[in-house]
Amino acid sequence: MKHIISVLVENKSGVLAKVAGLFSRRGFNIDSLAVGTTDDMNISRITLVVNAENHSIEQVTKQLYKLINIIKIQELDPGNIVERELVLIKVSADSRTRPEILEIVNIFRANIVDVAKKSLMIEITGNNRKVDALEELLKPFGILELVRTGKIACTRGSKY
Amino acid sequence: MKHIISVLVENKSGVLAKVAGLFSRRGFNIDSLAVGTTDDMNISRITLVVNAENHSIEQVTKQLYKLINIIKIQELDPGNIVERELVLIKVSADSRTRPEILEIVNIFRANIVDVAKKSLMIEITGNNRKVDALEELLKPFGILELVRTGKIACTRGSKY
């Protein structure tokens, strides 16, 4: 089962390595991980997506709390969050295929962020399903590069 | 000096911890890190932003290549890339302040992704400067939560 875990940490050298190390020692593969500062420059938030049993997640959470520099750990309820991912896709395109690609991009409300003679770069924001669907449709044209940020999420409503 | 480093790795448990560990042992603080799969499910891309001297980056790159599961390391030229970051911002809002916040959101071409009685959730995509400017303008209303994906980047043109 997929779990989305949000970890608030002090923005110090080595904290990320410790968190990632803890998951790896337990044999978890991290599906995606995104880390950036919060509105407080001294605090960073790590958003992790891992595939694991419920009880293993509980154990890891307990161990995470033992690490210094960890402020808060929260498993996010998929039913009560907004989740988003940003993806840049560079796809082969020439004068013949460009109109068809642009049509797909418009349907997905994605954006063209770079145009070259033989390629287009597309930016898309959304949940996994949307991004995967676009990727599937662009594959026949030839995907040259695909970069994902990994998922971030925020709980709905005013609660923090 | 800020460096944007793109690392292609095999999608295996422990690889991320090794990469993050190498940077932390050398005392680098990672400004942001984003990792997700590429168009090939067996390969993930790690995009790192670190603040360091040029010669230290060269040394780390050499050491990274010694790790198994590392496929390719590339330092990206800031002048020749499209860089993007996705940020979710939850801000305090009531019937009185909502119109003003919506106006700011429109100017930045950001999107409202959740509305509650006392808050709004905003999604914005862009480079650091744009995101920082929006954050600055929203601060007076009260930022409840701010989640960043960390930066990803893709080289312009058809080259891969």
Please describe the topology of this protein.
2 copies of one chain form a homodimer.
Chain A: E1 2-10, H1 15-25, E2 30-37, E3 43-51, H2 54-66, E4 70-76, E5 81-92, H3 98-107, E6 111-116, E7 119-126, H4 128-138, E8 143-148, E9 152-155
Antiparallel strand pairs in A: 1-3, 1-4, 2-3, 5-7, 5-8, 5-9, 6-7
The helix content of chain A is 25-40%
Q: From the structure provided, what is the oligomeric state, counting identical versus distinct chains?
A: homodimer
Topology, number of strands of chain A: 9
What is the helix tally of chain A?
4
Query: How can the largest sheet of chain A be summarized?
Result: 5 strands, antiparallel
What is the fourth-level CATH superfamily of the largest domain in chain A? ACT domain
β content of chain A, as a range?
35-45%
Structural class of the secondary structure composition of chain A? alpha+beta
General description of the model:
The structure is a homodimer. The radius of gyration of chain A is 19 Å and the shape is elongated. With about 160 residues, the first copy, chain A, is an alpha+beta fold. Chain A is built from 4 helices and 9 strands, in the order βαββαββαββαββ. At the A-B interface, helix 1, strand 2, strand 5, strand 6 and strand 7 of A face helix 1, strand 2, strand 5, strand 6 and strand 7 of B.
